[in-house]
Design brief:
It is a single chain. The protein is an alpha+beta fold. The protein contains 28 helices and 21 strands. The strands form five sheets. Strands 8, 9, 10, 11, 12, 13, 14 and 15 form an eight-stranded mixed sheet that branches. The longest helix has 19 residues. The chain is globular, with a radius of gyration of 27 Å. The chain starts with a helix and ends in a 7-residue tail after the last strand. The N terminus and C terminus are likely disordered.
Amino acid sequence: MPQPIADLLTRQASKDLVARPTELALLSTVLEEDGPRVVHVFGIAGIGKSTLLDIFSCQMRTKGATVLQLDCRAIEPTAQGLLQTLSADIGITATSLAEVCIRLEGLGAQVILALDTYEVFRLMDSWLRQVFIPALPDNVRVFFFGRERPLSVWQTTPGWRGLFQTLALGPLPDRDATDLLSRFGIEAAAARRINRFAQGHPLALQMAASAYRERPELVVDETSLQRSLEALTRMFLADVGEPVTRNALEAISVTRRVTLSLLRVLFPDQAPADLFERLCELPFVDIGCDGLVVHDVVREAIASSLQARDPESYRSYQREAWRQLCTEVGSAGSRELWRYTADMLYLVENPVIREAFFPCGTHRLAVEAACAADSDRIELIITRHEGTEAAQHLSKWWKRMPQSFSIVRGPDGQVIGICCKLDFDKVEPAWLQEDPITREWFEHMKLHPLPQQQQSLLCRRWLSLVDGEAPSDSQAAMWLDLKRTYMEMRPNLRRVYLTVCDLSTYAPVAQKLGFQVLEGQEVTLDGQVYHSAVLDFGPASVDGWLAELAAAELGIQRYPSVLNIEARELILGDRRVPLTPLEFGVMHYLLDRKGKAVSRGELLNNVWGTSYEGGSNVVDAVVRGLRRKLGEQANSVETVTGVGYRLHDPCGSV
């Protein structure tokens, strides 16, 4: 609901009122010579972490410090992603951490680096603790602002004592809460009544003030904060008199962020700039670096209400958002790619998928690169859960490629889990053939070679000290770290191989993720059967895989009436036409880039692969065969003179 300028000024002024002097004084200790180097501020959603950061940043700048605020929601959770974003903010084009550090050292006596919404950056926690922060010059202080308390290893790892400080951000004291409400024009008696259910929670206080001005008889049961926020959200929506803003709020509640282009497709009959401004004026909408963001608590309450009341509109908004994301991601630069990945992931409601990247629970275990000092514990875990022959093969990987091992540390700092991940392109083929399990993967790769520059990740084994390969907190931490590897290797990552003994436990989950069991390629070691499975992301790597998972959930047939991916055949009405491997590869590649011109060289590189040494006319021959099989839809594969080919939707639209 659009607000008068006076209300907006009141909101802005209220920030100064809730400046939290005690908390700001603690944060300011970083300026002291013996103060902490890293401070982790945490608190529940809507408690005022970002507001505190804004006020602290202003104070530090008045004292002469250089302040760099980064929103983790817009940063790819990889080392490269952080360095790219940070490089742009400090005015250089750096390719290494060393270059970034040199620049930071020259920015003044005090440099504050603050990472906001840090809870979405947990994939990078170990790298930040072990690599990034230790490399920073002495003039830099680091702040994390997020919902979750830090992992215990920050305080138990030798060397961090005295350098790491935590701050738990709680609700506003009663006096500050009622004073804040008075800034919104709420009289003292009503302010005290409102704060009984708002419990000093800043977002709840702001929403209650907005609702109270419209409905002075406002009554919210004294219940949990979550229920109060949901009730306030419903009241707020009910008080939005005109339908334009209300409909826009409901539509954007199904997305991670709001952009002008998204508003344009969701509301083709409205002016997107007007809708954007209406949303900007709402008390629970923030302007981010890549669009508008509705506060999580409010967004989830609106989406839940819409899904229950009007499931068809809910799905329709999701489908339109999916189509727009697929359109935009094709032209996204490397720095923007993660934003579209996160947007697509937000549309995936399957908890198996969502939890794999953004687990909703708090994982208290750290995953980090193994080092020589961990050798005894690694060998202990291997020999405890693997038979003699299997243990020998896994131990050999540890001795040959220790950099391929990650370890999970428990709260006491001891190694309680291990994971061996191998980059296929960086392993000696002879070593792969010595190990019976990786030999099966090597043979599969020979039968199904990948195009040039596309990579395979071999997840050789994960084991926890207590539970072996069975599901556990340690295993969950390892799988979360595996997603960081996915992000680092994309867009070149094409396949992931893994092995398990207890196939019945993992098959249902793995199949939902797209893994296929390699039948007939089982290996028996020490009387135990090791099953292998492979996940092929497709030509578009992790992003294409997520898009297909979202499409399946939303009931969108990504390749309508044309291609059956699993059967590798054309679907032409009631006919099924089998394709050769090259015909399938060309059709699949063109479908992933529907409407875009694809060169013959690109097809040779990505379909034929590195082993092909012939001329580009072979592409024309395969396309001719493909057109013959398409029959009446042959014209959907269009020749682009001087370039190659372009696929139009056989149903008519590009």
